[in-house]
Structure formats: structure tokens, C-alpha cells
Amino acid sequence: MNNSEKIIAVLFARKDSIYHKFPECDVYDKNRNALTFKGGMPIIAHPPCRLWGKLSHFSSAPEEEKKLAIWSINQIRENGGVLEHPAASRLWPVMNLPHYGKFDKYGGWTLGVFQWWFGHKAEKRTKLYICGVKPANIPDYELKLGFPEYVVSTSKRRHSKCLREITKREWELNHNCIFEG
């Protein structure tokens, strides 16, 4: 498949992201600066979240990194697509993103999911900001029901102490939130 057949841009993906396996995805990872994206197609954005989360005070990331999530929201509002961030992300109030069940002036809305439903080892509460697709038009998807055997260390207080903790690598591989560049 050549670039003219790419139909969706994936911004801030990991170098080893599964998105590289999908020929319809135009992937921007460590080797390809997402800020060079010119627009013209919907986006799946995984901008850095470490400065937006509830543990941001532990991050040594440069403050400039926060601008990447803001830039991503603006691109999604212009081109359509989805942004993925942790459920506790402070990006929502800063960018005036809508609460569950509400729409913003761009037609964007928020969907809450557990990444465990889609194959992640741990529950991982996540918010998706979606523009360009109405809730009724989200494709059907299968959910994995039950209880996870693993936990992300930040959610231990809500779960039994007997759950095993996923490794940092497992968290990053399935999260795509850490920016490598």
C-alpha cells in the first residue's frame, strides 16, 4: 500500500506499535515527528500523558511536552479522529473537553473505556475524545468481560492487593502514551 492509500494518521505511536502492521495507517513514531503531520485525514492520537496525569509531579519531562496534547486536540478538531488519555487526565478541563454524555462546539464527545476490554493485561481506565463520529456510529466491538488478573500500580488501592502488577514495559506497549523523542 502506498502513502496515497493511507486513510488514518497515528500520531505519537511507539516505534514497536501494532499500528505499523496496518497498511491503512500513516504512523508517526520516534523516527517520524508527529508535528510534521499536514492534516487531511482522521487521526488516532496518543500524545504524551505523563505531565497530564495524577502522578505528573513524579515526571521529569520538560513542561513543553504538555503542548503536544493540546496540539493533538486541535488537529483532531480540524481533521476528525480520537485522542486516548488516562481517565484521570487533567487535559479535559484545560481544553474544555466534554464530560460523558455531552458534546463540545466541535461535535466532540468523550467515551470512557477500560483497556482490559480490548486485551490489555490490566484494567486501565481510559478516556477517548472523539470528533467526526457520532456515538451511534461507533462500530460494534467485542468486550472482554470478567476481572483482570493484573493491575497498574496506580490503581492498587482500588483492587485487591493480590493482583499482580504489570511491568512498565507492558504498560507502555499497550498504552502508547510515552513519547519517545
Quick structural overview:
The protein is of the alpha/beta class. It is 14% helix and 19% strand.
Question: How would you classify the quaternary structure?
Answer: single chain
CATH architecture annotation name: 3-Layer(aba) Sandwich
Class inferred from helices and paired strands: alpha/beta
Radius of gyration: 16 Å
What does this molecule look like?
This protein is of the alpha/beta class and 181 residues long. It has a single domain (3-135, 142-175), classed as Rossmann fold (3-Layer(aba) Sandwich). It contains three helices and eight strands. The chain has helices at residues 66-79, 91-94, 168-175; strands spanning 8-11, 25-28, 43-45, 81-86, 109-114, 125-131, 150-151, 164-165. The strands form two sheets. The protein has a six-stranded mixed β-sheet with strand order 2-1-3-4-6-5, with helices on one face. Strands 7-8 form a two-stranded parallel ribbon. Helix 1 (66-79) links the parallel strand 3 and strand 4 (81-86). Mean pLDDT is 84; it is low at 174-181.
Tag the structure with descriptive keywords.
alpha/beta; disordered C terminus; two-stranded parallel sheet; 8 strands; 6-stranded mixed sheet; single chain; 181 residues; Rossmann fold; globular
